[in-house]
Recover the amino acids of this structure.
């Protein structure tokens, strides 16, 4: 667990090095693909920089995608571009994945880059376990079970909602009362937009399981988990700034008095039994080492 404090941290996986050469058919296709995916934007970061491309034909076809997370700052159009191009300029990544035919990476600055020598769009990266980036605020809450219940309900619901959204994105909030004081937890969930609905929800449930088992996240006022194909985040008492979207209005406490420590949902509905079961299975698999 870490709070990166402005330092860029990456998690990545790639195939064996030196599996193609510059100027070869596949080398030319990869070069064109990466230029297309990471080329500079002419204005503000539109579409959260979600881009997909396929160059060439089998057996030298190169397919890829790039995306920045929705809470990436949009005041500077170069922010997302710099995040993506870092993958091609980092000495550490170049040494580890030099001329690899497949590559997947996520950056703590808020972006994903993925390419391969065969089609993969529509399916989540299946090898992200242990490669997630986990961040927290290092500020612990004193809200106890009420905040845990609110987080479980909110993020579980957002995982399901994002899977059914064409943008593969959802945001919402959950209010709860602690010792007579009203608090609001804000959250967002996002997947790469190529994923099928079930793939997106499943990816987010896996990240939710990471939050459950990471003890330093349990009582944090703010935390996020970034995976190779999806992203989950929450924070207390302050709306999440999403690029291109207005901040939600402040959420007032309900007119009725709730018992101390109880959670009051504001996004409607409850986390489905399927999501709870999926997260439980994920935790069981992790605990037993299967």
């Amino acid at each position: 667990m870490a709070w990166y404090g402005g330092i860029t941290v990456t998690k990545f996986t790639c195939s064996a090095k030196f599996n193609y050469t510059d100027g070869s058919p596949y080398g030319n296709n990869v070069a064109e693909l990466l230029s297309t995916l990471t080329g500079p934007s002419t204005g503000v970061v539109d579409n959260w920089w979600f881009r997909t491309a396929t160059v060439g034909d089998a057996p030298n076809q190169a397919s890829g995608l790039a995306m920045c997370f929705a809470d990436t700052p949009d005041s500077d159009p170069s922010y997302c571009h710099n995040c993506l191009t870092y993958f091609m300029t980092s000495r550490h990544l170049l040494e580890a994945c030099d001329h690899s035919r497949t590559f997947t990476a996520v950056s703590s600055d808020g972006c994903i880059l993925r390419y391969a020598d065969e089609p993969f769009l529509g399916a989540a990266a299946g090898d992200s376990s242990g490669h997630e980036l986990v961040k927290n605020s290092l500020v612990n809450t004193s809200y106890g079970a009420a905040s845990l219940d609110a987080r479980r309900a909110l993020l579980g619901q957002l995982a399901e909602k994002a899977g059914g959204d064409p943008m593969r994105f959802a945001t919402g909030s959950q209010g709860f009362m602690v010792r007579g004081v009203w608090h609001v937890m804000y959250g967002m969930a996002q997947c790469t937009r190529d994923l099928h609905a079930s793939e997106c929800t499943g990816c987010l449930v896996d990240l939710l399981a990471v939050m459950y088992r990471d003890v330093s996240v349990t009582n944090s006022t703010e935390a996020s988990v970034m995976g190779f194909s999806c992203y989950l985040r929450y924070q207390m008492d302050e709306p999440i700034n999403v690029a291109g979207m207005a901040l939600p209005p402040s959420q007032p406490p309900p007119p009725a008095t709730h018992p101390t420590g109880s959670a009051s949902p504001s996004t409607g509905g409850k986390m489905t039994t399927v999501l709870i079961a999926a997260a439980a299975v994920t935790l069981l698999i992790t605990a037993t080492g299967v």
Summary: The chain has seven helices and eleven strands.
